[in-house]
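Table 4 source record.
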Amino acid sequence: MNKIVRQIRNFISPGAQNLTRGSIRPELIRFAVPLVLANLLQALYGAVDMIIVGHFTDSVGLSAVALGAEFMHTISSFIIGFCFATTTMIGNYYGAGQKKDIKETISTQFSICLLCALLVSCFVCFNINKFVQFLGTPAESFSVTKDYVFICSMGLITVLFYNGISAIFRGFGDSVSPLIFVGISCMLNVLGDLLLVGGFKLGAAGAAYATVASQGVSAFLAYHYATARDYQISHGRKLFKIYKDKFLRILRLGFPSAIQFSIVGLSFIFIVRQVCKLEGVTGAAACGVVTKLDGFAMLLPMSFNIATGAMVAQCVGAKKYIRARNVLKQSILVCASLGIFILVALELFPEVFIHIFTNEKEVVLKATQYLRSFAFDVLLVCFVFSFGGFFMGIGRTEIPMVVGIITAGIRIFASYLLSGIKNANMTTLGFALPLTSLIQIFIFVLIFYRQTRHLTLIGKRQKP
């Protein structure tokens, strides 16, 4: 009994973890499970907003949250791309035992987050009408969507600092601490939504206020926790000091990821625009519901993407190249095996999941149509995200960027063609995603076997 308790305690214990030794699959799963739970709670942010707004307002409020959240996700993803670079760098330095470089990386990252948050918030707020129009927002929900985007933009700094601290934890091999703080934030968000949306009837604006406030509190608590432990975080003014070599490396590693995430986000916005043209406000609401369901389904591959990247980064820092390659193989095997079950559940019981968000018959019908084809992407992205995590871990972030840009263009083109088919509906449009994921997998496989030959040659002298 004591042995079981000790194993559970070691499994969920927060703190830095060395991922360069031990059996790969158990280590990968142990690191990924807290990430899955953290991403599950993160997905609850948008889901709770959609559920509460969907039940306390109407399709106008629901479409406002759907459109506004998609836009804010695209905006924040650009800056969060630099956070992924920080995870890779800290993983490399931690694997090599270079504490001074870790501290300088963290200070530089916080400086970048602060500067980007201020610039982006101002830019969005001063051009908010153009951005809301760019989303293809229906006239009925224009003003509500505008309020949601404005509030979230003003609070962007809280979102970025939370993600920045989480990136630091993951670089140290700690996937439990982010879970703790996202849990706190999610609980506060639920309470805020119930109070502001359900109690004070503030609609989509109330959901935005609750999201910003809860992330801010979580970021504040995570920062003080990290400074109290050995995470090499500086204090005072040194926290925002920029080191030129670290700044250039973050840009080199992070800029491709930032561009990739932004382009992918824009391609999804284009799909939403096509849905709005085809089905109006009802289609936008249905698309938002499926997007939130997709957020839950994607938390599995997203978690393995982060776990693979962090684990590979530490292996590369420790010069264990064969182990780094084997991490990818195990990631694909485990993630795809679980992805099959999610796909089957969505295909067999689509309305069960959709009714969680709304009971409007038209929205449920359109969402069911969209999910029928969209759901196949859940399995395919297990391969895509695992490859992306591997290339990020070895510091070749330009590879996912190029592949992401190419396939984003294909996704936009495919959605445009599919929407123009005679008698096209939501199911027709949904096929744009799995088709482009198949292309991504094919490209990644080709690049992987070409780009990792040198890792295999070097790694022949290393122990896995």
